[in-house]
Design brief:
Elements lengths: L5 H17 L7 E4 L10 E11 L9 E5 L2 E5 L3 E12 L9 H14 L2 E2 L16 E5 L4 H11 L7 E10 L4 E4 L19
């Protein structure tokens, strides 16, 4: 089921895609999902989820009607989310065979080629739906906004990429169960009995 674990499953999926993409670089760093509360120990690539938003293109969808035996479940539409990530290489060794720019270039290439992530790259039980797909796009932000992120983390500015992942769905838990309409009556105006005519 697409439940509240979907966000963490999406992050683990993105982590796996980035790690697989870096495997081609000799001695490449590992990718770590991190909250960036402290400076990571290099060499590593951090994946920091810095914003979660409701997907505006998925608003105002109608409720769904799911048949369950002789009755129906009326459910609200899924909550569709956009996840925004800051991807940062931390390479402090000047003698390393790779640099921040090399890692940034490779990660850009990987996420451009894997713009739509489907099975078998999806991780976690919440992403097991057969038609599940996560769309990843480069989502550049202004230097001012980028600087604000680093200032709020109280870490020095580093070269990084910002990516947006959509659509991460969370299914509502609650629903209303109703019976189908068995018979209907329609009328117009006042009803007049036959013996009154």
């Amino acid at each position: 089921m697409r439940d509240y674990t979907t966000i963490s499953d999406a992050s683990l999926t993105l982590q796996g895609v980035l790690e697989n993409g870096l495997n081609g670089l000799e001695g490449s760093p590992k990718v770590k999902v991190d909250n960036l509360m402290t400076k990571p120990t290099a060499p590593v690539v951090t994946l920091f989820l810095y914003e979660v938003l409701e997907d505006p293109s998925a608003r105002n969808r109608p409720r769904s009607r799911v048949p369950v035996g002789p009755r129906f479940q009326i459910r609200k539409p899924n909550l569709s989310l956009l996840l925004r990530y800051l991807v940062t290489p931390w390479i402090d060794n000047l003698n390393a065979p790779f640099s921040d720019q090399l890692i940034i270039g490779r990660l850009s290439q990987v996420l451009y080629e894997k713009a739509i992530i489907t099975k078998p790259d999806l991780k976690g039980a919440s992403l097991e739906h057969p038609n599940e797909a996560l769309k990843v796009t480069l989502a550049p932000i202004s230097l001012e906004d980028r600087t604000r992120i680093w200032n709020s983390l109280q870490l020095p500015y580093r070269l990084s990429l910002t990516f947006e992942m959509r659509v991460v769905n969370i299914e509502p838990e609650h629903f209303t169960e109703v019976s189908p309409v068995a018979q209907g009556r329609f009328g117009y105006g006042d009803v007049v009995a036959e013996d009154e005519q």
